[in-house]
Each structure stands twice: as C-alpha cells, then as structure tokens.
UniProtKB/TrEMBL annotation:
It comes from the Bacteria. Keywords: Oxidoreductase. One of its GO terms (molecular function) is oxidoreductase activity, acting on CH-OH group of donors. It holds the Pfam family adh_short_C2. The keyword Manganese does not apply. Belongs to the short-chain dehydrogenases/reductases (SDR) family. InterPro entries: NAD(P)-bd_dom_sf, Sc_DH/Rdtase_CS, SDR_fam. This is SDR family oxidoreductase.
Length: 243
C-alpha cells in the first residue's frame, strides 16, 4: 500500500530525522517548514539522493488557510495523506510564569496546539483511507517546565488531550492516534530557549546519563505509524532517558 506522510516542521531536528527515516521506509514525504527553505531543501535532496520521494512545502501550520493549501498540494502530488506527524513546535526564552506575557503565551499555543488541531482536522476530512497520526508532545507536559517555559509545557499538555480524545473518536474508523514525549534531545530548539547547551548541562542528571538524539525519537514515531503498532492507539512513548 502506498504511504504518504506530512511531517510538520520536517526540516530540522526531530522532524528532519523523521522525514529521512520515513522516506527510507517507502513513504512519500512532505517536508513542511516555516521559513528556512535551505534546510528543508537539504532534507529533501538527501532523501532523493538515497532513492526516496519527498518535496519541501512552506506553510505556517498555525494558519488554517495555509494548512488546507498544504494538504491540497500533497494530495495533488501523491494522493490522500495516509499518515501525519504533528511535530512543529516552538518555545521562547527560559522565564518564570510571571515574566511570560500574553502575546508569547498565545503564540506558543497557536503554533504548538492550533497547528495540531488544524492538521488533524484537515487530515480527517480528506477522502480516502487514512492510517495514523503521531503527535510530538514533550516530557514537559508531565514535568511542567518550571522556571523555563510553563507556556510550552501547557501547550504539550493540550496536545496530549487532543491525542487521547481523537484516538477515541477515530478508533472505529481504524485510524490510530498516538503521541511521543521526548525529553532532552540534541536539537537547535534549546538555543531558542536561550541555552544552546541545555542538553549537555542536564545530561548527567538523567537516569540514562545522556541526552537523546533526533534519530532515537524518529524510530519511535516510525514504529507508532507502522502496521507493527496496529493495536496501539491513544498512548504515549516516553523518550526522556528515564526521567
Ligand atoms: P527545532 O529543531 O527547533 O525545529 C523546529 C521545526 O519546526 C523547524 O523545521 C521549523 O521550521 C518548524 N516550525 C516552527 N514553527 C512552525 C510553524 N508555525 N509552521 C511550520 N513549521 C514550523 O525543533 P525540535 O527540537 O526538533 O522539536 C521538534 C518537536 O519536538 C517540537 O514539537 C518540540 O516541542 C518537540 N520536543 C523537542 C525536544 C527537544 O529536546 N529538542 C524535547 C521535547 C519535545 P523552520 O526551520 O522553517 O523555522
């Protein structure tokens, strides 16, 4: 069966590793990105060089019009989108809650939660057979991210609720919805929080004594999307080194 996947924020970090892995497993991949075209094109070039199928697509996934246009573009190119990875996410400078302003909180919720809602909706409303969704949450939804980004943690908590509720709404249709909760993963996101070396600082305090790689997260996402996980829905894989 043909497999078509959209990976939001597929151009860097966890999304890029997931794009590459899924392409190697035979998926036709839409590598979504917000602004950095070069990085998206690089991921796509590497996939095509390896014999896979992919194309880059610029869209702000917090914008409904752009999300609809993205799904239409993918459908025209490959057919029905059979799998979806809601991976795009942002955070801002480490701060206490009392120093987070309303605009920042709304921006984080819009990018991290509304994108998940809008992409899930566009995915479900398509004609044709659909298989599975994976939402990229965070260990922050359990831990709360105090003194860092409670806004971000709250957005991931909301994603977890969407994952659970939607898995139950879609179970009868045979569409599975699961989540992954990464912990400290070596990506550029930590620079946005104001501490590029955050993972290295925290690594010794983690039970497994190290940070994780984007490729390790990608493996779990790929498994949850795959037929090997055919009886798994409404659940979460913790990728936080034991924390
Ligand atoms: P990253 O390296 O900062 O990459 C973020 C990706 O999201 C980029 O491809 C970026 O595109 C894209 N993006 C951001 N806003 C977007 C928007 N509005 N529309 C479309 N694309 C958008 O992030 P990462 O560390 O790989 O994180 C990926 C996911 O894992 C996020 O949901 C994050 O919350 C979650 N996570 C990460 C960690 C960690 O330790 N890294 C831990 C737990 C959870 P551009 O390049 O064009 O900006």
């Amino acid at each position: 069966m043909y497999k078509v996947v959209i990976i939001t924020g597929g151009s860097r970090g966890i999304g890029a590793a997931t794009s590459t892995l899924l392409a190697s497993k035979g998926y036709s991949v839409c590598v979504n990105y917000l602004s950095n075209h070069e990085r998206a094109q690089q991921v796509v070039d590497d996939i095509i060089d390896a014999g896979g199928e992919a194309f880059p697509y610029q869209a702000d996934v917090a914008n409904e019009t752009q999300v609809k246009a993205m799904f239409e573009a993918v459908q025209q190119r490959y057919g029905t989108v059979t799998h979806l990875v809601n991976n795009a996410g942002i955070l801002f400078t480490q701060s206490k809650l009392c120093d987070i302003d309303l605009e920042r909180f709304q921006t984080v919720m819009n990018t991290n939660v509304m994108s998940c809602f809008l992409c899930c909706k566009a995915f479900i409303r398509q004609e044709g057979a659909k298989s599975a969704i994976v939402n990229v949450s965070s260990a922050a939804s359990r831990l709360g991210a105090p003194f860092e980004y409670i806004d971000y943690a709250a957005s991931k908590g909301a994603m977890d609720s969407i994952t659970k509720g939607l898995s139950l709404e879609l179970a009868e249709q045979g569409i599975r919805v699961n989540g992954v909760r990464p912990g400290c993963i070596y990506t550029e996101m930590h620079a946005d929080g104001g501490e590029p070396d955050r993972v290295a600082r925290l690594a010794p305090s983690l039970p497994l004594q190290r940070g994780g790689t984007p490729e390790e997260v990608a493996e779990s996402i790929a498994w949850l999307l795959s037929d090997e996980a055919s009886y798994v829905t409404g659940t979460f894989i913790e990728l936080a080194g034991g924390r």
